[in-house]
Amino acid sequence: MNRRDVLRAGAAGLALEISARTLWAEAEADAGRIMTVRGPIAPDAMGVTLPHEHILVDFAGADAATPDRYRADEVFAVARPHLDAIASQGVRTLVECTPAYLARDPALLRRLSEATGLHILTNTGYYAASGGVFLPAHARTESADDLAARWLAEWRDGIGGTGVRPGFQKIGVDGGPLIEVAVKLVRAAARVHLASGLTIAAHTGDGRAALQELELLREEGVDASAFIWVHANAEADRALHAEAAARGAWVEFDGVSPGSVDGHVALVAAMKERGRLDRVLLSHDAGWYHVGEPGGGEFRPFFTLWNDLVPALRKSGLSDADVRTLTVDNPREAFTIRVRPAG
Q1: Minimal CB count within 10 Å: which of 75, 110, 196, 287?
Q2: List of domains in the chain
Q3: Per-residue model confidence as pLDDT tens digits over 125-151
Q4: Is 231 helix (H, G, I), strand (E, B) or coil?
């Protein structure tokens, strides 16, 4: 690295440090709240929460996924009945996990939230899973500090001129060991967390990757309780679920569907037996309007958890208090804005 590069890196680091100090002060005003697409709410207002769902996704790739590939009015018309349906079940909050460059649309989410009365959260961050096809080119060349500065700008100023602020971070990595760009995303997310208090939800390929992510966060000074292991249900080794939970991480069993109920009951039962029910999140990872398919293709509804899984959990021996822990208390704690330093 030549002298000019050193100076440039030093200036970028100083700028991020100054920005982080400013954001830390601003974050104190948001600490202890939930940030929705319509603004902050008290954590107790979240109620029953689905912590991982999708309204709209475009798998065209980072270079091609642009808003002109879909009509927002059509997406609104397709998605709204599904949101009205869960609102009638008593669901109060939906966490929308579509990241940037996969058709994240904060303005559409705000419009749906206003129409249905549901609280909806959107996110900041980048997605490096699936071989990185959904990563913008700059994510490969910029530093972790550079990426953190981009995500913190969305937290401070809102996303893309909409004024909508993210309520959490969404990143994506493949299985372990993590490749270099995935490591960079985890470090960037850690730095954003320390400056904002935004929880990190990480699409994670396997348990080995999840434990590596937790080690990276520890190196960055972030407690495991700031981390959600997304798609933990895909990991067959339940001992890794317990280990991540023992470190304080949130273990998310999403993918709830009519055909997965028995498997999800077994996953939850194993965590309850180990005394780790207080670290479990449940959701469908369902929806969504598929950009590029006629009419958005098949939209998978969000009601299996309440129609099928919760009754099955009760039948397996979970109490009403346990169900509340899984559907109300845990999501509320997971997404409350709070800086969680290691140690």
Answers
A1: 110
A2: 3-335 (3.20.20.140)
A3: 999 999 999 999 999 999 999 999 999
A4: coil
